[in-house]
Amino acid sequence: MQPESSGYAAQQALRLATRYAMDAADEDGHWMGPMLSDITITAEWIFLLQSIGYQIYEGDRVAYRHHFLSTQRSDGSWGIAPQYAFGGNLSATIEAYLALKILGMLPDHDAMKKAREYVLSKGGVAQMRMFTRFHLAMFGLLPWTAVPQMPPEVILLPSWFPINIYKFASWARITIVPFLIIRTREPVFELPNGRQLENDYLDELWCEPKRKNVPYSKDFLSLWRTDKVALLFHIADWILKLLCFIGFLPFREFAIKLCLGWLLERQEVSGDWAGIFPPMHLSIYALLLEGYHMNDKPVRLGLAALDRFCHKDEKNGKWMQPCVSPVWDTFLMTRALCDAGTIDLNDDHLTRALRWTCERQIFVKDGDWRVHRPQLPPGGFSFEYFNTWYPDVDDTAAGILAFLKQDATSLRSIHVTRAATWILGMQNRDGGWAAFDVGNDAFFLNSIPFSDMDSLCDPSSADIVGRVLEAFGLMLRLHSGSKEGSEGSLFTSISSACQRGIAYLEEHQERFGAWYGRWGVNYIYGTSNVLCGLSYFSDEPRVRQMIPPALSWLKSVQNADGGWGEGLDSYIDSNRAGIGLSHPSQTAWALMGLLAHLSPKHDESIARGVAWLVVGQTDIKAQGEASWPEDVHTGTGFPGHFYLGYTLYRHYFPMMALGRYVSALKECQGSKGELER
């Protein structure tokens, strides 16, 4: 396909996609696509409903069961993502089985039989992950002695202490605090067969149901040989058990009281905690264990917030979302519509969307980030509807880009300058940026007994650095040549921060030319973000050295069909980087990376990628509207452990890629009008 004809086809695809996007907008102008994850989130929601004695109506039971059964794999297991190459996940399968049993599915159902066979073939319940241990212990399906100690006294430790609650990443911190209360109180809730301290409700999944007090770590000698930090933590765990046994914990109740106050302080007026499911449902347990009742306001609001996270559709049934992403989706869809060039930049769809996001910029002084940056003025954005305590750098940078792409004159608006100032203050010593925290790199915490996902820290990541550089680079470009006003010092600071960010990227480029994607799968995502960011600094010698290997790598992993894809196995083995079936979001990321530095006029890789997207726009919603089908998870929660299916990734990223392609073609041809067939 010649560039001219492919440009015309891309324009046609963009028109269809634009109508689809406009139709998907909420009445108030924002976008929010349902979010998918693995089955454990919905299972743990069912566990909470069972624990509080909530009667699930039959219609919802059917919808929940549909969701479970529609995601079960052919071998009877449930996985951590639809495309996971390493088969099912034992803990996910255990939790799904228990949830289905609570929902009334009998053990002799074919799906249950297959799940049971899978679990037993993998060693049974004894091989489960740590989160699953906690949830089974709360029903008496596992003794609490088989769960690590989690001393609430950690809340007493100051922020300068080597181990304290603020050393953990934001998502871990807000989840750990309610766990401290739950582990201390050791509750046992009722199952359909009653409340029993030693419940046999799940015995069919045990290889040895008489031996449930299974160890949660290696023996001391093995730890001495392999991980001395883990050994120290396990010695501390053993000492805590001894202190619990003899009853010598003088500050325990005081610590519990502080934990409870800490949680209540961080509950949003809407009832949410951090806008993510794990702390939200665990905090309900914690409140009830500390004497709150179902009718008390914090519990009522918390349950209402959780209920808002539930989603239901014909294809997937009913499920609990791990999070909701309205601010993120609205910024990215706005950017996509700006890139597409199919509507005027002053179109009501764009102005209403950004007006909606402006109302959600966080100017209040609450936030855990203030522990290490007490003098930094607020100004960030968070991912969700209600989350003032945990804004994130990625959202905030995406917001700057959306504001400036829609209206370049907003460069000196309070929304852009305060967002940029906040991001500047969140830069790490290594020159990079993390998602939510600053200086959060105490990796030794991942050896703690209750950690089994290696995700207790929030260090700098290349993908976020790339987006920040893109936002700051655009700000610097718009500022250059203009008269410097009172905000001149801001742009000087931005320029210095960018140099440190570039140095971070230089140090973290992989030997094969790519960059790691912490929050999207994987090297294609990271490399795309970095290349887009570096495009504003391509005149610098060290940047010119980084770009060619990255472009060569992207071209080398393009699939024969013209698209790009990458499996989750690249998080386990970097030799699998960029290898996988083609998908719309990943193809779009690769194209955006290439288009940031290459002319589309004579580039075969770009032409083939564009053709793949044009031909693949087969999700027809209505006449004149179309999108791209994508049934895989290309968002990352915890690499190797937890992945996210953003249902709008398949739409706004291809729009961005095609829009930039068309714009670049027009620039090559010196044309401002329509590209001809």
UniProtKB/TrEMBL annotation:
SUPFAM superfamilies given in the database record: Terpenoid cyclases/Protein prenyltransferases
Residues in Squalene cyclase N-terminal domain copies: 16-314
Keyword annotations from UniProtKB, A to Z: Isomerase, Repeat
An example molecular function term from Gene Ontology annotations: intramolecular transferase activity
Keyword Isomerase in record: yes
Pfam family, one: SQHop_cyclase_C
Enzyme Commission number: 5.4.99.-
CC terms in the record's Gene Ontology section: lipid droplet
PANTHER family: TERPENE CYCLASE/MUTASE FAMILY MEMBER, TERPENE CYCLASE_MUTASE FAMILY MEMBER
Family: Belongs to the terpene cyclase/mutase family.
Protein name according to UniProt: Terpene cyclase/mutase family member
Annotated organism of origin: Periconia macrospinosa
